[in-house]
Amino acid sequence: MDPCPFVRLTVGNLALKIPVASKPARSVVHPSSSPCFCKVRLKNFPLQTAVVPFIPPENQFPDGHVQTVAATFHLSKSDIERLAGKYIFAGKLTVKISIYTGRRGTTCGVSSGKLLGKVSVPLDLAGAASRACTVFHNGWISVGKEAKSSSAQFHLNVKAEPDPRFVFQFDGEPECSPQVFLIQGNIRQPVFTCKFSFRNTGDRAQRSRSMQSESGSSRSWLSSFGSERERPGKERKGWSITVHDLSGSPVAAASMVTPFVASPGSDRVSRSNPGSWLILRPGEGTWKPWGRLEAWRERGGSDDLGYRFELVVPDTGAAGIVLAESTISSHKGGKFLIDLGSGSNGRGTSGCGSSPGCSPRSSGDYGFGLWPYCAYRGFVMSARVDGESKSQSKPSVEVSVQHVTCTEDAAVFVALAAAVDLSLDACRLFSQRLRKELCQPYDSIA
After folding, report:
1. Is the pTM of this model over 0.85?
2. Is pLDDT of 375 > 90?
């Protein structure tokens, strides 16, 4: 399999020094009481925000301070070519950072925060996909309107690193048992086939027994990771999708282990009672649990699909290691992302290497190196899925080359992407009817 070139542009190591005023004034920012944040912009990419920590004026950076990544932009070869084309006659491409004092958010429709200053860092991304690491800026910049000797000082690091990825695309809806192609430029090479099916009670019992014997204990994996409850009323259950290689051997699977059930008195799957999938990979003649995906329908105006994905820690009583937790627009679709180096869900590093970490909420929750899957770091995978507004969905999947050492490694991310796409259907309001491929013959509710 041949990967596609990608570049990972990161903005990090943020810090702010503000000189202490000799006389009290209303315009003075007091670090102890006034938080700061910044907005990071790159042309044609979504705006990103991050907290900017204060440090005492006498301190140097980064001595004694945690190195963090505040914003991350993932650029494909076509993204770089498009940006280079736009700026060939209009000056250099730049990443722009606006620094604000005050808290993030809005009050009565008006954005909070007072603009302290703006910073622009020129970028030259030509050849960045083939160089080990390109640092565009690392150090302090004066910001604000005061004299240079008394202005605020803003520290940042802007760098680009190659991040090659395998790109896969489904040739149709996962429930239609499509082929999956490896994309390399204009070349589409078939690498997997998917088989969607409904799991019956006998299948559940057999799978439960095989998991139980593999763990060597009386605990059933299915009872551990989800309830096989048979509830009267509105529910969607028993969906399963198996990924096969071109020889026909099963190399990954996603199995719905907790039915998607409408909350009492409503037509939606709630966050307090989500449905869930077990993502499986083959090993030693049986399926081994690899990850668990929970999904639900958010309340409020957004009405988004909420999700949480965690790695399974086998043979321990510890909770799973959460790698992703966010939302996707139910109507428009969006991107499911596992990135342990971004500011929103991971730790960063000051160097040009990948970011360490197992969990976006706390990389040290379970101890680094607790089990082999803690090797996941930096960008891991993303899956783009279409929402309810599209009549046909063809999910696409990007997987970092550093996390693929065999066919099963790639297949398990394809199975996860299929589960995310199917969760959009499983979390549809129960007042809406599903397409026929998702309805069992005896199912008169969905």
Report:
1. no
2. no
